[in-house]
């Protein structure tokens, strides 16, 4: 049973099709196979959020938020709703907590 969330569109470089992620499983696969920047804190937080959700410890919206933050950290433009791109600005309180 997939763990769905509202679609997140990754706006990649010109000439490359956008990628639409709409579940925790898709987010985990993208993070673990094709992610351009896999050394940042937000990347690790997003991966952990995916695994925690799959084990029933987090909700899908938290995973979605962590995934978007990891994309911004990696320099990927993200479209959350039709025409609404993230600008990479956030406050410290919007950060997904990660227990280490």
What do these coordinates show?
Helix 1 crosses helix 2 (41-54) and helix 2 (41-54) packs antiparallel against helix 3. The chain is globular and about 40 Å long. Strand 3 (77-81) and strand 4 (84-85) form a beta hairpin. It is of the alpha+beta class and 100 residues long. 38% of the residues lie in helices and 20% in strands. It has helices spanning 24-33, 41-54, 60-73, and strands at 4-11, 19-23, 77-81, 84-85. It has one domain. It is built from three helices and four strands. Strands 2-1-3-4 form a four-stranded antiparallel beta sheet.
Summarize the topology:
Layout: E1 4-11, E2 19-23, H1 24-33, H2 41-54, H3 60-73, E3 77-81, E4 84-85
Antiparallel strand pairs: 1-2, 1-3, 3-4
Put the structure in a nutshell.
The chain is α+β, with helices and mostly antiparallel strands and 100 residues long. It has 3 helices and 4 strands.
